[in-house]
Design goal:
Largest sheet: 8 strands, mixed
Radius of gyration: 23 Å
Distance between the termini: 55 Å
Oligomer: single chain
Structural class: alpha/beta
Strand order of the largest sheet: 3-2-1-4-7-8-9-10
Shape: globular
Number of helices: 15
C-alpha cells in the first residue's frame, strides 16, 4: 500500500516507520520543515524513542519512507491516511481543534475515492462522525461512508516504547459504518504485528469495536480510569498521613487480592494523556462527578507536597528549595503538564526560592521552560518530583545542606537518608 501519516511527532513518526517496516510505501506529512528535512535524511528529530534511530534510517534507506510539508499531495498518492495531529484542551476542558481542523482540510484537498482515513488522536466522543466526516466531505466533494472510509483507531502507546506497545496492545477500530470498520480492520492487520497474550478475552490483534463512538469512548475510558484510580490512591495517602499509616503497605496488601488494583499515589499526574483525557471526557459528560473529583484531587497534590515540606521544615520564606526533576515522569524528556510547574508555583506562594535540576535537561533548556536551574546555589530543602533512575542512588552527600527531603515518588533509598528528615506521601 501507499500510506500517508499526517504529523510526524512522537507517535506519528514511529507509526510511519512501523508501516514501512511491513513493506508499505509511507509518506509522512508535517508542517514543520525541520522535521521533514531530518526525516528525509534518516535522522530522528527527537531523542528517547527506543530503536527509532535505527528503524528510521533503514526505512529511508530502503526508499519506503519519505516526508513532505504538502499534506494534500501526500494524501492524493495514498490509499490510507493515518492522522496523529495533536489536540489540545484548555484549563476548562474545552478542546482546541485548530491544528486538527487545518490538517483535516488539507487531507480533504487530496482525498480520492476509495481512501481510508483513520484518526488516531484521542477525541471527544462523536468527533469522528460529527466533525471530521462533514469536514472531509465538504473539502473533497466526496461522501463519507460511500466514496471514502472513515474510522477512529486510538493510539494506545507510551513514548519511549512505542514499537513494543504496538505489539502488546490490541488495536481498537470503529468506523462511521460497517464498511469503514471492516476496511479499518483490514488495514491495521496489514501494518501491525501482535504478541500472543493469554490474559485477553480474545486473541490479541485488531479488535472491531463496531462504531467510531465506541472506539472514541474506549480510549477516554481507559485513561480516565487511571486518573480516577490514582486520585483514589492519593486520597488514601493523605488519610494515611493524618493517621500514621504507611499507605504503601496498605496498597500492597490490598492488591494481593485479585479484585483490587489500586495504583500508586504521588506528587503529580503529568503527560499528554492522564491529565487531559478526563477533562475531554467531562466535556462530553459534565455530570461525571467521580471523574471531576479525581481530577481535582490529583491536581492538588503538588501543593500538598509543599505543605508536607513546610510541616517538616518550618517557615519556607526565603528558603532555597531544590525541585528534583522537571520531566513529568522518570526517564522521559517531556514536561507536558509536569508537576514541576505547580510545585514551583506552590513554593513561590510560600515565599521559598525554588531551583530545578533534571539529569535529562541542560540549564538552558530549564530556563526555556520558565524554570530556574540549580547551578550550585546552597539549598536546604528538596522535593523529588520525577522518578528518574538516577535518583534511586541519591544520598545526603549529593545534597549536603539539605535537612528535609520530600520524596514525592518514593524513589530514594530510605536507608541512605537516615539522619536526614525524609518525608514521603502516604508515609
Amino acid at each position: 500500500m501507499n500510506i500517508c501519516v499526517v504529523a510526524l511527532g512522537k507517535i506519528g513518526l514511529p507509526l510511519a516507520v512501523q508501516f514501512a517496516s511491513k513493506g508499505h510505501r509511507v509518506i509522512g506529512a508535517d508542517v514543520n520543515e525541520k522535521v521533514v528535512e531530518l526525516v528525509n535524511a534518516g535522522v530522528e528529530p527527537f531523542p528517547g524513542e527506543h530503536d527509532l534511530d535505527v528503524k528510521l534510517k533503514q526505512a529511508v534507506d530502503a526508499g519506503l519512507l519519505s516526508a513532505t510539508t504538502d499534506t494534500a499531495s501526500a494524501v492524493a498518492e495514498s490509499e490510507a491516511v493515518v492522522v496523529v495531529v495533536p489536540l489540545f484542551v484548555d484549563a476548562e476542558g474545552t478542546p482546541d481543534f485548530g491544528w486538527m481542523d487545518a490538517a483535516t482540510k488539507a487531507i480533504a484537498q487530496g482525498l480520492r475515492p476509495g481512501t481510508l482515513v483513520s484518526y488516531e488522536t484521542t477525541l471527544p466522543v462523536g468527533t469522528t462522525r460529527t466533525r471530521w466526516a462533514p469536514m472531509l466531505a465538504e473539502g473533497s466533494g466526496l461522501t463519507a461512508g460511500e466514496d471514502f472510509h472513515l474510522v477512529f483507531s486510538p493510539e494506545r502507546v507510551l513514548t519511549g516504547r512505542v514499537f513494543a506497545d504496538l505489539r502488546r496492545y490490541p488495536k481498537l477500530v470503529g468506523g462511521i459504518d460497517e464498511a469503514s470498520t471492516a476496511r479499518g480492520v483490514e488495514f491495521y492487520e496489514q501494518v501491525l504485528d501482535f504478541d500472543e497474550r493469554a490474559d485477553l478475552p480474545q486473541a490479541n490483534g485488531v479488535w472491531d469495536l463496531g462504531t467510531a463512538e465506541a472506539s472514541e469512548l474506549a480510549k477516554l475510558a481507559e485513561t480516565t480510569y487511571r486518573d480516577v484510580n490514582i486520585g483514589l490512591a492519593n486520597q488514601f495517602a493523605r488519610f494515611a498521613d493524618q493517621n500514621g499509616i504507611d499507605v504503601k503497605k496498605v496498597i500492597e496488601a490490598c492488591n494481593s487480592q485479585p479484585y483490587s488494583h489500586i495504583h500508586q499515589p504521588g506528587i503529580a499526574v503529568g503527560g499528554h494523556c492522564i491529565p487531559i483525557y478526563p477533562r475531554m471526557y467531562l466535556w462530553n459528560d459534565p455530570s461525571a462527578t467521580v471523574v471531576r473529583s479525581a481530577r481535582e484531587a490529583n491536581a492538588a497534590m503538588p501543593e500538598y507536597a509543599v505543605d508536607l515540606l513546610a510541616a517538616a521544615y518550618g517557615d519556607l520564606t526565603g528558603v532555597n528549595v531544590l525541585v528534583l526533576g522537571a520531566a513529568y515522569r522518570g526517564g522521559v524528556k517531556e514536561t507536558a503538564f509536569s508537576g514541576v510547574f505547580p510545585t514551583v508555583e506552590a513554593l513561590k506562594a510560600r515565599g521559598a526560592v525554588p531551583y530545578v535540576s533534571d539529569p535529562m535537561y541542560t540549564a538552558e533548556e530549564l530556563t526555556a521552560h520558565g524554570l530556574t536551574p540549580h547551578q550550585g546555589e546552597k539549598v536546604t530543602a528538596a522535593i523529588l518530583q520525577a522518578d528518574h533512575a538516577e535518583y534511586r542512588t541519591l544520598t545526603p552527600a549529593d545534597l549536603p545542606d539539605v535537612t528535609v527531603l520530600v520524596d514525592g515518588r518514593r524513589t530514594t533509598d530510605p536507608e541512605a537518608w537516615k539522619g536526614v528528615r525524609r518525608v514521603v506521601i502516604g508515609g
